[in-house]
Design brief:
The chain is mainly α. The protein is built from five helices and two strands. The longest helix has 18 residues.
Length: 111
């Protein structure tokens, strides 16, 4: 049960939790398809082939995967399961990679 402070009154007479009207909803509206994001990250990093979608553990491949994970979840509002399916990895590993993804994102932010 939400307190009155955490709810918004809608014109239809329904109470909507404030969390439904948060910034994540705005991000979800402005997102691009995951496969397009993966392609853009691969192009940006100069990667070839389907390495990003395999389970390879090379540093450049795993850095690209965590960058895609970070951008998709934190910046575009995708769910862990959606990103995991697109990258062929378990959603738990998406959650684990977010902190590292932020560091990788900060590294490439100036490019």
């Amino acid at each position: 049960v939400f307190s009155i402070l955490t709810q918004l009154w809608c014109p239809q007479g329904h109470l909507t939790p404030l969390r439904e009207a948060n910034a994540k909803d705005v991000k979800r509206k402005a997102r691009i398809p995951l496969l397009e994001l993966i392609g853009k990250v691969k192009t940006f990093l100069g990667m070839q082939g389907e390495d990003l979608l395999t389970g390879r553990r090379k540093r450049e491949v795993s850095s690209a995967r965590v960058l895609v994970s970070y951008l998709a979840v934190q910046e575009m509002g995708y769910r862990f399961t959606e990103v995991g399916q697109a990258l062929n990895i378990h959603p738990v590993n998406i959650a684990r990679s977010l902190e590292k993804g932020e560091k990788v994102f900060d590294k490439y932010r100036g490019k």
